[in-house]
Protein: NAD(P)-binding protein
Organism: Roridomyces roridus
Amino acid sequence: MSSYVITGAARGIGPCVLAFVAQLSTEPNNTIFALVRSKSAASHLESLPGKNITIIEADITDSKAVEAATQQVSALTGGKLDYLINNAAMLRVGGPGLTDFSRSSSPEDLEKELMDHFRVNTVGTVHCTNAFLPLLRQGSAKKVVVLSTGGADLDLVLKANMSKSAAYAISKAAVNMVVAKYAAEFKQEGFVFLTLSPGYVDTSATATEKIDEEAIKALTKKATKVLSNFTALTPEESVKMQLEVIYKWKVEDSGAFVSHHGNKEWM
């Protein structure tokens, strides 16, 4: 029996964590806690058949709300947690550009764009991880996973000339370092910290925001030039591969940033 907390589990933007909840809940002995910013946006979760899923409303940028969620989880698990999967993230398509000079944006708009992404993707992850650490210490797995993106890898960005979604990529690069810092501090306690990219996942079926089709086409074209085996994954395929990486990852490799393949093959 294992217990899991998965944040940002309502929506299909980015790595479709709805698929995480769906797959993990098929094992009746698992206990799944899905943290969502708003239950009103969690219709996909509520439709899942698993009886071992608890939906908790908590905005990860609100440390008090996250602490309250921690107490709810603790009450149902006897003060323990095995896995924390930090997925909640912000990705604003079409925001002020950092490198696209054809778009005009004020310094104030640009700063807001950066800080909004940093507050959710980096600081929010820290709040959530800190809140659940006491429960994880009592768990059997002691695994903390943060879902990131290959777009935060310097080599891929430079090879594919990926200048779009800069605020998102910058905030994810920052959270990659957050994970490394946690790993450095908690490795001796047997914790496993891992930053994991889900690959290129088609999440249109559960998306609650309009998808920028032109941006997707441009990304696909660039990725195809760099990666000969580039292909879009279904959420189910990606999650299956991610879970294989999560379960096999060991303490000695804590703090790594890898893909759903368990290496630097991002797509």
